[in-house]
């Protein structure tokens, strides 16, 4: 409890072993992935870090996605696009939480 503080979230899940494990996540963990692997900045741990522009959408059309990827690769534009987390009302709530955390807008 001390590690997450009064605003933190604690999730308990059944494991595949008899050992107890603790994982502390700084920030927010989403249940969806990148729209394209080209947005990954660290191949070893599959992360995209320090991106000034984060696009969260159900999908990005092929032409728009190609433009984003080309601008990232050729012009060095710092962008990352991920799939929107959750479904229905949970999605709306999750996007609002993400907006608060990042200073973005829904």
UniProtKB/TrEMBL annotation:
GO terms for molecular function: ATP-dependent protein folding chaperone. SUPFAM superfamilies: GroEL apical domain-like, GroEL-intermediate domain like. Gene3D superfamilies: GroEL, TCP-1-like chaperonin intermediate domain. Keywords: Chaperone. GO terms for biological process: protein refolding. The keyword Chaperone applies. The keyword Phosphoprotein does not apply. Belongs to the chaperonin (HSP60) family. This is Uncharacterized protein.
């Amino acid at each position: 409890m001390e590690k997450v503080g009064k605003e933190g979230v604690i999730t308990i899940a059944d494991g595949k072993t008899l050992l107890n494990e603790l994982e502390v996540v700084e920030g927010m963990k989403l249940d969806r992935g990148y729209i394209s692997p080209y947005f990954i900045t660290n191949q070893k741990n599959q992360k995209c870090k320090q991106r000034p522009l984060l696009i969260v959408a159900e999908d990005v059309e092929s032409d728009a996605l190609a433009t984003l990827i080309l601008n990232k690769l050729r012009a060095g534009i710092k962008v990352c696009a991920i799939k929107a987390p959750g479904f229905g009302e949970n999605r709306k709530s999750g996007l609002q939480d993400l907006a608060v955390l990042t200073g973005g807008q829904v």
